[in-house]
Amino acid sequence: MSPPSPDAIGAHAPWSRRGFLLAGAAAGGGLLVGCGGAAPAARVGQGSDFAPSGDQVALNAWVKITPDDRVIVAVPRSEMGQGVHTGLAMLVADELDARWDQVQVEAAPIARVYSNTALLLNVSPFLPDDDGLLARLTRDSLQTAGYALALQVTGGSSSLRDAWEPMRLAGAAARHQLLQAAAWQWQVPVSELRVRDGLVHGPAGRAPLRFGALVQAAAQQAAPRELRLKPRAERRLIGQPVPRTDVPAKVNGQAVFGLDVRPEGLVYAAIAHCPVFGGQLKSLDPAPALALQGVLQAFALNAQSVVVVARNSWLAQQGLLRLAPVWDEGPNAQLQSSSISARLRQAFDQEDGTRFRHEGDAVQVLADAKTRIEAEYEVPFLAHSALEPVNCTAQVKDGRVTVWCGSQAPSLARMKAAEVAGVDSAQVTFEVPFLGGGFGRRLESDMVEEAVAIALRTGGAPVKLTWSREEDVQHDLYRPAAVSRFSATLDPQGLPRAWRHRVAAPSIGLDTVRRLMPRLALDSPDKNHIEGAFDLPYAIPHLEVRQLRVATPVPVGSWRSVGHSYNAFFTECFLDELAHAARQDPLAYRLAMLAAKPRHRAVLQAAAELGDWGQPAPAGRARGLALHESFGALCAQVAEVSLDAGRVRVHRVACALDCGTVVNPDSVDAQLQSAIVYGLSAALMGEITLKNGRVEQSNFPSYDALRMADMPVIRTRLMPSDAPPGGVGEPGTPPIAPAVANALFALTGQRLRRLPLRPQA
Amino acid sequence: MKLQINGQTRDCDVPPEMPLLWVLRDELGLTGTKFGCGIAACGACTVELNGVATRACVMPVGSVAGQAIRTIEGAPDRTVAALQAAWVQHQTPQCGYCQSGMILAAASLLRRSPQPSDADIDAAITNLCRCGTYQRIRAAIHTAAQALQGSRA
């Protein structure tokens, strides 16, 4: 029996304006639409990409169906609480017209078809709304690079932006194959069939066919040549508050995080790193640890760390406590926070830096101005401190490596594991359990390199490396400290006529590349450093933004919202200063500069309305406002604060978000709450300081975060939009610090230009 | 030594000063109880000891031998079941790492204060959640309290 030809099916299909050509050449007038850095067919992939086990049948790289009607969706992004397993599976399920209760999520293997082609869009140095040829070519190239590098990475609020087209196409392609199989079975044209809630409905009087009954035949059907995706009105899951797939296992202890994996024969490792950045091990006497019953091994792992392996985690820690490694503290033994701060300030006198934005002639206008408003802002280093401490489990046996790690970057971590073990990447199996928080810390592979290096010495036994909380806080890749200087002058209406902004900070991009591919690490312009500062949405005729990249011995990395985390604080607070200098309402002031930005205006007005802007605040309280664009989304917040014996209390936060199409509104609400709490913890408490080359903080008492008693009431509003999805995980973080600082100014008249916010009594 | 965990007697041969947390996780394979800080500062390791929320990371196992220990894996009684249902209803967990401890801290609260006020919740739930799920935790505790009151009536 031969299936009807795809052409016969296609003849009945109601093609939309925007079809996706999946197979064959573009002959016959098919419309070829790119799909995030690769051809749509390459991104939908083959069934062989998503290896079926048991009685599963794979229809493409994203969908397997079982005879008992389960729909298994491959999700190649790490679940760290953001709801990505659910959100991405919804894309497939919606186009497939599956019932949500038949959908299961399976972590995808590492393969090019699962590349994140949206991740690198975050390093495009063009303004978000720049549709010029160069900007478009750059964005296309960055997407292609993500595919070429087969980046399987969860970060940069990019998962939905990347998956939006390929995963819906995968669902639509699978649906098409099921329809073809049903059409053949019933001998009727596809146009007489429809799919609803996991069933294919056919001619009157015939019982509907289950996916499970059709999937064997569906797999024999040719993939469609061309597909259309559902218009908004036909969507059944996308846009609905669908319950998350990972929640049930997270309320009964069954969810397996990286720290919970227990392969047969497991041994446990603890590690201590040189307390001073850049120091080295001079000597180690392993005997005191080895004397402890249950300790198996104690050794210097490399020049920066010592390790104890034992029969359980506690014994490993106890063994480590008995060691007294002698460290050569190296060149940074006298490094203090104050010296880093001074180094950042010196940069303003020593160099011009890199210009990232240039409109009009801000330097000349400021030189000629009668009055200038100037200010300096500063933020400290920050640790990520995810609740699950850094950890990784690894086994090296018979030339094969297995790694279990809650990684945000499994494709890169696998490459590092292979390097350390001296094997080909193909010899490395990499499992990604749940992540107990990521926040950017788990983009790094240091724990993987360490665990594999330890596993090379455990005689084939799997080893679980667990960092103590103290190691986690003191050996992070930190959010950079930064200093920012502004100079502005106002026009007769009080609006900014010229704005010059310079930011001095270590380069996250340089440090990140240095860790990943040291040979490619060059000190070059770094968009992440200045993001949120150079791409200011406000209309200012004379505008200059410069970046000063200042190296320090403190390693830096991506911390939820990356450069936006400090640049939003700088720009939105200084803008507030200008509004007050002009004696104008901060909302009206911003709106006056956003005449050409209707989406920005709308989100700002929505937050203002939700936050009772313009209404009198309760006695003893005041409100502040901030707006920030990041990761393809616009977020505005109103914070309502008071002071309680010198302590900042944030009572309410109103938050509006325009992230384009909302896939799961309940997850977006949760992510906004999360992003606000994460940013608020940093704004009120977060500070990593150095004394004699060491991080002074060590555990939650000295590096604490918001708790229940300090939790504000957060209300969110999502702007209706048909635009493709923007980011969600990070855009809620940048506005909270400036919203609170601006509220404190309204309350006290005190302008706090340094984080964390510590009002003077 | 003999431990009473989730209604079962478990034997383990470990030093009495070993913290209960690591006995549960590494020796008995009950990994639902989490390690977060090791100094009772975050509450990720919260279990119930005779119905009272207790931080297992600083609790020497020798001092709890024979006492009733409940971990998140235990068959839920009506209080824990009501909390778990409310947690699902409010879609409370994000990364989920703190949630075992949060649920057992909430269970302990409801056992002594069946209709807690917001201030009671603030005082009792001192556990740390880095994802910021506090607002939904608060709502879920109130929901569970109402459900338990309804089922009692």
UniProtKB/TrEMBL annotation, chain A:
It comes from the Bacteria. It holds the Pfam family MoCoBD_1. Residues 252-331 form the Aldehyde oxidase/xanthine dehydrogenase a/b hammerhead domain. InterPro entries: Ald_Oxase/Xan_DH_a/b, AldOxase/xan_DH_MoCoBD1, AldOxase/xan_DH_MoCoBD2, AldOxase/xan_DH_Mopterin-bd_sf, N-heterocyclic_Hydroxylase, OxRdtase_Mopterin-bd_su_IorB, TAT_signal. PROSITE patterns: TAT. SUPFAM superfamilies: Molybdenum cofactor-binding domain. This is Xanthine dehydrogenase family protein molybdopterin-binding subunit. It comes from Curvibacter cyanobacteriorum. The lineage of its organism: Bacteria, Pseudomonadati, Pseudomonadota, Betaproteobacteria, Burkholderiales.
TrEMBL record, chain B:
SUPFAM superfamilies: 2Fe-2S ferredoxin-like, CO dehydrogenase ISP C-domain like. This is (2Fe-2S)-binding protein. Keywords: 2Fe-2S, Iron, Iron-sulfur, Metal-binding, Oxidoreductase. PANTHER family: BLR6218 PROTEIN, OXIDOREDUCTASE WITH IRON-SULFUR SUBUNIT. Pfam families: Fer2, Fer2_2. Residues 1-75 form the 2Fe-2S ferredoxin-type domain. CDD domains: fer2. It comes from Curvibacter cyanobacteriorum. InterPro entries: 2Fe-2S-bd, 2Fe-2S-bd_dom_sf, 2Fe-2S_ferredoxin-like_sf, 2Fe-2S_ferredoxin-type, 2Fe2S_fd_BS, Beta-grasp_dom_sf, Diverse_Oxidoreductases. It comes from the Bacteria. The keyword Metal-binding applies. Signal peptide: none annotated.
